[in-house]
Amino acid sequence: MTRPIPIHGTCAPGFEAVRDVFEKNFESGAELGASVCFVRDGEKVVDLWGGYVDTERTREWQPDTLVNVYSTTKGMAAICAHICVERGLLDVDAPVSKYWPEFAAKGKERIPVRWLLSHQAGLAAPRRRISVEELFAWHPFVAALAEQEPWWEPGTRHGYHALTFGHLVGELVRRVSGQNIGRFFRENVAAPLGADFHIGFGPELDERTSDLYGELIPPDLPQAALEGPLGKFFRDMGDPSTLTGSAFGNPSLRGGLVNTRAWRAAELPAVNGHGTARALATIYGVLARGGSQDGVRLLSRAAIERASEEQAFGPDAVLGGMPMRFGLGFMLRHDLMPISPNPRAFGHPGAGGSIGMADPDARVGFGYTMNKMQMGMMGSAGAFGMIQAFYAAL
Fold it and tell me: Where do runs of H (alpha helix) occur along 148-242?
């Protein structure tokens, strides 16, 4: 007899369809352990968790289970940068070299902060081989990016800075605030909002942290997945001589690295944030309702509008020519990332399926985390199914 999948949490009346989709994701085998949360106008209307943290299915997923969310972390890093802008520490139109003089090398002296935040700086990958140890140590990786020339003329195209985004933005935050981005985020975002999200943490949280299972690209891809721009992306991912291969594989993050203590301890604000769906929905929920809640002011309405203003839209130089739409640190709603029916929605997905989103028109914040990697760069079918069910219920 099949053991029933443990599903816990609450749905406000009218939103039961979201729970139905959540349960079906488990029944189909798409999920092992996951959580989902929708916050509407400051109130949690969906807050669900279920499944298991281990493949043996001996430990149930808890409401405070943490898991790595890969690039969903980029949205949290972007918030830190915008707090610095609002405090007058950073100007998005000033050259990066104003705050980081070494960055001016190899013709980069005129690159504005704006292009760094919108993946237009041409620094999508390090040009020299980087070790995992250098990545974790922060300063060697940052120095390598400052010393190199861009892969394309900055400002002429955009290309997803998969790994480098976090160190580029994080170094700016460090230069202007005097704090590493992990501490800056904790003191200025997570702690004031009571949001259980972390960029680098100690062993004290390991007990409630789930491993992540699977790889971004499964070894048995169907033939259909190897066609078109997505197919080019998958093929280039495995070729270190390409920009795409370098952006995602220098250094290589494979081999279970994501589940090690060294990975969790490092501050990698592009890829190693660990948190709950509730934390993501809380943070984005505050942005969705103008930037303030319960006496905590995260950002002003004007800052949020600036952050979510389109900066680049079209074929991405790193993602095989797939169309991408970027704001200042956030991905914006478009057909390939239907995070909301409303055009002003913004947020960030992570490899394998996690996602966080703010919808200012509906005053909704959304978060979804899981421990079983699903194929895709911009959310997962399961997450989008819950989003559709939620908006159908509004």
Answer: 164-177, 181-185, 191-193, 228-237
